[in-house]
Every structure is written in structure tokens, then in C-alpha cells.
Design goal:
The complex is a heterodimer of chains A (314) and B (433). By secondary structure, chain A is of the alpha/beta class. Chain A has 11 helices and 9 strands. Helices cover 31% and strands 23% of the residues of chain B. Chain B starts with a helix and ends with a strand. The chains are: A alpha/beta (314), B alpha/beta (433). Chains A and B meet through helix 8 of A and helix 4 and helix 5 of B. Chain A: It is an enzyme of class 2 (transferase).
Chain lengths: 314, 433
């Protein structure tokens, strides 16, 4: 799998912001090939042989971390997982110290998750290798948006012109922010559905339409993207209760009927069944949730490979 | 409903007083099937069919029944103080045809099942209409918002923490923001509990003379000012529960001038009494917010006249002997008011500070508009929630004869004028003398 060096011209993947449609298409095209590759019995390439990948997770994430780990290993990289509890250390100073220490180990790519928005950008300025944002606070989660885009494109054949409804805790969601940027760049119409308490200020200016009523928001949608409701948002802090949230914002078969008959349902996982999504929908014929996980590994392989090509001394 | 209830009722020879259209005229009013069927000068006994029951009002005022936006009813949990049944009997005797009860019950009305309970009990035991307000925060604790959507579906008419203020601005902001999505009305009591501290009456010379700790008007004004900013921020439907001082009126005027759509009420106690009424440490005059200076009372009356204050509420709060027969500082806040609200309000008409139509607007039309209820007006098709009263009949109030289960009336022994001779709810007479 040799690609032209210009397919993805950036040194890092810190967010969807700043990416062009061409950048995104290049990554999606490459990821598409990795889907087929991953379905083979022999799924090990040597594209990243000799390269060192460090997964630096300041907050726990089993799914994303293992997806990156698997992606690196399938490409032949040496993968090291580092989990750092952000609560036990002082942020800022430790982050930079960690970056300097890691940099001295001469890694080729660092995958970073951090609870603070912008932390990954800060770290990227202190290291010489490529950096992938695996989620920074409520800011961005670019590989999630890319895997969502890949899943949509594989099922609908396109992204442009589709109506995508993103429903749930937009306020705290890096998944939503990256998806709003990516889907907008790719020409989709994005709708946000949430109670006002879970919408960021000025969200109307994000180039989206905003709906407080799920039935209005889902009307004739092609894709319904549900977001996970974090436990700390429940019970009176931002919404009164999970019972009420499910009643007005949870996706069940009755509400899904407002979307197009061939609408597809997505969720970044892990799901709160009976809170943001009903089991019948999560496991039903419209659901792409398992496909998203498969696309995740492929997208991360595409990203790692693209960044590795841009590293010096190739 | 019995067969008798289906019989049309004609109120003849009345002074028809419609605060919605601000008109008064002589004529009659025909009630059939629970609504006003005909109204006007042409409605006379001669125009009535043979099956119509005719009542000669003898020139008395016929007006829409009063709608009380704020009453504590005690049920469930404090039935020894009041039940929905006894509150409704007191209301009917006082000309109140709709009570909106606060969620300060035990348990508080913060769960759809409790709303359902109250509405069912009201249906089965009350003789006037009763609506329930639900709590804004769980347990009225000011920390976590309630299930505003589910409570609305269960029938909650508005949301309030009763006599408690939400001190945490972030909690109130989120609650207002969430309530706006459901177009739910937020009714907030504005008294900064930190600033009020241990105060028990209005801060000033009189409190100092009595040796009682005072509550400054700023305790109310600061929170109201904060709330106006939160309303501007969130766009919530907001009603200030009880404004009592000139400073609050200035805040409301400024907010409205800035385009913020807020409404406000005051209590019958605050427009008819002042801080001097607590002389002799009369605990029946201990209410929250406290009775203010006479200048504030005069300003409130003017504010009703010019519409800055929309509504007058009874703030009916029955307290038993145990809680009121205490040293002033230790006694509970609250006064009963359902049965005396109209007569007390008529003091303002008799002393020339308000005309009757303006008083009735504040007691019926504006509450109906704010709560989006169909009453509060005398017109064809409107609900037949009607009162007949003579505004001039003098009497001395004997609290022992009141229908409320408690006797904590600040008007006990007072000379009042104006008595309701008939109260009609949904076409049925529920009170008559």
C-alpha cells in the first residue's frame, strides 16, 4: 500500500478544524482499503515497521486506546501504552514534563487523550514526532468523526447532501464538535438536537440547525447520531433525570419513525441503553454501531500510515 | 353533576363587571352547561325560558371568580393545617374559584405521582378548581432540577420552590434554560437568604424599636435583579412570586423597558398592611417577605394601577397554634388569606386608591393570562366561574367563623367591607348566603 506523499500533507492530526475536503477524502479512501485488509486472515503489514507508537492516555478509554493499539500493531509498529491518571498529577507542568520525557525516547507518533481541551495541541508543540488527538476535553475527537464519516460513506455512498441529526449532550461532546466540522466540510446538513442545558452558547452560528424537540430534529433525517450521556450530567445537574431524558431525547423506535425510512443510527459508544438509546434501536436493523467500531480501526490505520509517510527520514 | 346543575341559571339585575375588557354595565348573565351563554342588558328574567333558574342580584357586582396564584393547601402531609377540601371551602366563601397550590407539601410536589395525587384529591373533594404547581428543584432544596417535562404532562401548571429562593445562580440558570424548552412558567420567590440572615421583619426604625432583627429590602431586590439577568440570558417564562418593595418595582420597570417579558405579583397582605401591623408582636402578621414600610405599600398599589405588578395573590398559608403561638422571632411565617382576599382588597377601592375593575384585573384576569387559564373574563363562551358580591356590606371579621382549618388571619377583628353572596364554579353554585 504505497500512497503519494501528498495524500495527507499535515504533520499531526490534532482536529478536523483546518482539514480540507481533500484531506478528509484522502484519509477516508485509504481507510476504505484498510477495511478490506482487516477482513483478511493475514492482517499484518510492515508499513510502520521500526516505528514506535506511544498511546498516552491521561483519561481512561478502553475502546479508543485498544483501537489505536490494534491499528499500530497491524501496521507493524512497536506500540507502547501509557496511562497517566490526570487526577493524581498537577496538569500543565506535568503534561509538558511528560512530553519532554517521551520525546527523549524518540517515538515516531504519539496518540494523546487528555481531559482538557487544547492539551494535545500544547503537547504537540513540545515534541518532534507526529501527534494524534484521541480526544481533548470537550474540544475535538477527529478520528471518531473520520470513522463516522467512513461508516456513513460506505452505507450511503456519499456524505454531501445528507441530513445528519446529532442528538444528545452537545455541550460536553468532542465527538459532536468534530462531526459538525467534518460533516459541514463534506457538504452534509447538520442538525443538533438537545435540551438547551446541553447546548453550547452560540451553537446556532456553527452552521447547523438547532432543535429542542427530537421529533422536529429527526424529521426526514438520513443519519441519526446519538451521543453518550455522561453519568455526571444526569440527576439534576443538566437534566432532571434519566427517565425524563429518555422520554424526551432518548431514541426509540417511535421517534426514529420521524426520520427517513432508510435512516441509519450511529453511536460512538459505550451506550447507556434506556438513557439515550433504546435496545431495540441499538441492536436493530438501522443500527451501524458495530460497523463504526470496525471503521475505527481502519481509520486509525489510515491516519497512522499517512502521518508516518510525512515523518522525516522516510 | 346533578340534573339541577344542568338547569340554566340567570343572574339578573347585576352590575356586570368585566376586568378583561375593563367595562362595567347593568344587565344580566345567563349560564348554561358550565359556560356563560349570554350576557348583557338584554338578558333579563323576561328573556329567560321556563326552565331557567332566575336569581335577582339586586344590583350587586357580578364578576369573574378570583384566581389565586399562590396558596399553601397542606395536603398531602399537613392535613391538620388544611386540606384541599377545606381550602376550597374557604376559597368559595371568599370568591376564589381557582386555587393554584404551591408544592410545599409532604412530600413536596416534585414527582409526577404527587401531581396526580393532588389533582385526583382535588377532583374528588374540592368545590372550586384546584391546580398544582410543581417544585422547581427536587425536594425544594435548590440543588437539582425536577422533571419539568414529565411534571408538566402530569398537569403541573407552573414551577416554583414556594417560599424558598434558589440561591445558586447556576442551578437557577440551568433550570430556567431547561424550563424554556417546555415553555414552562417559572415562579420564583426572591429573597436572598444570606442577606436576610436571622431577620424576622422589615429592617428599619420600627424593627429596631421592637428589638427584632430586620430583613432589608435589598434581600429581595438583589435576587430579583439577578433573576432579571438570568431571564434575559435564558429566555424563560418568569414570574416574580411576591414583590413587596419600591426597589423591586424599579427593577421590574427597567427590565421591561429593556424588553424582558416578566410578570410579577404581590400579596394581599403587602398591599393592605404594613410593618406597623406587627406592633404588639402579632405573629399573624409575620409573613415572608416581611410586611414593608408604608411607602413601599403605597408604591405597590400604584404599581398595580399602572400594571408593573400584574397580580395579587392570597399567599394563603395556614399555620396552626403550635407554630404561631410562639415568640415573634420563632413563630412560622404565613397568614391565611383565601377567604378574606376580596374583602381586604376592597379596602383599596373604598379608600380611593384603586378602582374596582383594576382590583379585579389583578385578582382574576391577569392571573388567568399569566397561567394561560381560560377564566378571568365575562364573555360568552367563557367558563361560568362567577362571583356575585356587594362591595359595600360592612362586617367585622371573626376568624373563628372562617372555613379554613387554621385561624391565623392578620385581619382577625378587622372592619372590612364587601361580602360574596354567591360563588359559581363551572355553572354550579358552590357558596351562597
Amino acid at each position: 500500500m504505497t500512497k503519494p506523499a501528498t495524500s495527507y500533507p499535515h504533520r499531526h492530526l490534532l482536529g478536523i478544524e483546518g482539514l480540507t475536503e481533500r484531506d478528509i477524502v484522502a484519509l477516508l479512501d485509504e481507510a476504505d482499503e484498510h477495511i478490506a485488509f482487516n477482513r483478511q486472515v493475514e492482517k499484518k503489514s510492515s508499513a510502520l515497521r521500526g516505528r514506535t507508537q506511544i498511546n498516552l492516555f491521561f483519561e481512561p478509554s478502553t475502546r479508543t486506546q485498544s483501537s489505536f493499539e490494534l491499528a499500530g500493531k497491524r501496521l507493524g509498529a512497536d506500540v507502547m501504552n501509557m496511562s497517566v491518571s490526570s487526577s493524581s498529577v498537577k496538569k500543565g507542568e506535568t503534561l509538558i514534563d511528560t512530553a519532554i520525557t517521551l520525546n527523549a525516547m524518540r517515538p515516531d507518533v504519539i496518540i494523546v487523550r487528555h481531559s482538557q481541551a487544547g492539551a494535545v495541541h500544547l503537547l504537540a508543540r513540545k515534541v518532534d514526532c507526529a501527534v494524534v488527538n484521541a480526544g481533548d476535553g470537550a474540544h475535538e475527537h477527529p478520528t471518531q468523526a473520520l470513522l463516522d464519516a467512513l461508516t456513513i460513506r460506505r452505507n450511503k455512498g456519499r456524505i454531501a447532501g445528507l441530513t445528519v441529526a446529532i442528538c444528545g449532550d452537545i455541550l460536553h461532546s468532542r465527538v459532536a464538535r468534530s462531526n459538525i466540522l467534518l460533516l459541514g466540510t463534506m457538504g452534509a446538513q447538520v442538525r443538533l438536537i438537545a435540551p438547551s442545558t446541553l447546548l453550547p452558547a452560540g451553537v446556532e452560528r456553527f452552521g447547523v440547525s438547532v432543535h429542542r424537540n427530537i421529533k422536529d430534529g429527526l424529521k426526514d433525517a438520513d443519519i441519526v447520531m446519538m451521543l453518550r450521556l455522561q453519568r455526571e450530567r444526569m440527576a439534576g445537574a443538566f437534566i432532571p433525570s434519566t427517565k425524563e431524558y429518555f422520554r424526551y431525547f432518548g431514541l426509540d423506535e417511535e421517534k426514529l419513525r420521524y426520520a427517513k425510512p432508510d435512516a441509519l443510527v450511529m453511536h460512538p459508544g459505550p451506550m447507556n441503553r434506556g438513557v439515550e438509546i433504546d435496545t431495540a434501536v441499538a441492536d436493530g436493523a438501522h443500527s451501524l454501531i458495530r460497523e463504526q467500531v470496525e471503521a475505527g480501526v481502519a481509520v486509525r490505520m489510515a491516519v497512522l500510515e499517512a502521518l508516518a509517510r510525512n515523518l522525516p527520514n522516510v | 353533576m346533578s340534573e339541577k346543575d344542568h338547569r340554566p341559571l340567570l343572574l339578573a339585575n347585576a352590575l356586570l363587571t368585566d376586568p378583561a375588557s375593563r367595562t362595567q354595565s347593568r344587565g344580566g348573565l345567563l349560564i348554561a352547561w358550565g359556560v356563560i351563554a349570554e350576557i348583557g342588558a338584554a338578558v333579563t328574567p323576561a328573556s329567560a325560558g321556563p326552565d331557567v333558574e332566575v336569581v335577582d342580584c339586586g344590583g350587586q357586582v357580578v364578576a369573574p371568580g378570583l384566581i389565586d396564584m399562590r396558596a399553601v393547601t397542606g395536603e398531602p402531609g399537613a392535613e391538620h393545617r388544611e386540606t384541599l377540601a377545606t381550602a376550597s371551602q374557604a376559597a368559595a366563601a371568599g370568591g376564589v374559584t381557582t386555587i393554584v397550590c404551591t408544592p410545599e407539601t409532604h412530600p413536596p410536589i416534585d414527582d409526577p405521582a404527587v401531581v396526580d395525587f393532588v389533582l385526583r384529591r382535588a377532583r374528588d373533594t374540592a368545590i372550586v378548581r384546584i391546580h398544582a404547581m410543581a417544585a422547581l428543584t427536587k425536594g425544594l432544596k435548590g440543588q437539582e432540577m425536577t422533571e419539568i417535562g414529565l411534571l408538566s404532562e402530569a398537569g403541573a401548571l407552573a414551577f416554583t420552590d414556594g417560599a424558598r429562593s434558589i440561591m445558586n445562580a447556576r442551578v437557577l440558570r440551568r433550570t430556567m434554560t431547561y424550563a424554556r424548552d417546555f415553555d414552562a412558567l417559572v415562579i420564583h420567590h426572591t429573597q436572598d437568604s444570606d442577606l436576610a440572615g436571622e431577620g424576622v421583619m422589615n429592617e428599619g426604625e420600627f424593627a429596631s424599636r421592637l428589638g427584632l432583627p430586620g430583613i432589608p429590602v435589598e434581600a429581595e431586590a438583589i435576587l430579583l435583579e439577578r433573576d432579571m439577568r438570568l431571564v434575559a440570558l435564558t429566555g424563560a417564562r418568569y414570574h416574580a412570586a411576591t414583590v413587596t418593595c419600591r426597589a423591586s418595582l424599579d427593577i421590574l420597570r427597567r427590565a421591561r423597558a429593556a424588553g424582558i417579558a416578566v410578570t410579577a405579583s404581590t400579596s394581599i397582605n403587602h398591599v393592605t398592611l404594613n410593618e406597623n401591623d406587627v406592633a404588639g408582636f402579632r405573629t399573624f402578621c409575620k409573613v415572608s417577605p416581611p410586611l414593608r414600610h408604608e411607602d413601599d405599600r403605597i408604591a405597590l398599589v400604584q404599581a398595580i394601577k399602572d400594571g408593573v405588578v400584574d397580580a395579587i395573590v392570597s399567599d394563603h398559608n395556614p399555620q396552626d397554634v403550635e407554630t404561631k403561638r410562639q415568640p415573634f422571632a420563632e413563630s412560622a411565617d404565613g397568614a391565611i388569606g383565601l377567604e378574606t382576599m376580596l374583602a381586604a382588597g376592597l379596602r383599596l377601592v373604598h379608600d380611593g386608591s384603586l378602582d374596582l375593575v383594576t382590583l379585579l384585573r389583578a385578582l382574576s384576569t391577569r392571573p388567568a393570562e399569566i397561567l394561560r387559564l381560560p377564566g378571568g373574563r365575562l364573555e360568552k363562551g367563557a367558563p361560568a366561574d362567577i362571583i356575585v358580591f356587594d362591595p359595600d356590606v360592612p362586617f367585622v371579621l371573626d376568624a373563628a367563623r372562617l372555613k379554613s382549618r387554621c385561624r391565623n388571619s392578620p385581619f382577625d377583628g378587622a372592619r372590612l367591607q364587601g361580602q360574596v353572596s354567591r360563588t359559581i364554579v363551572g355553572g354550579s353554585t358552590v357558596h351562597q348566603i
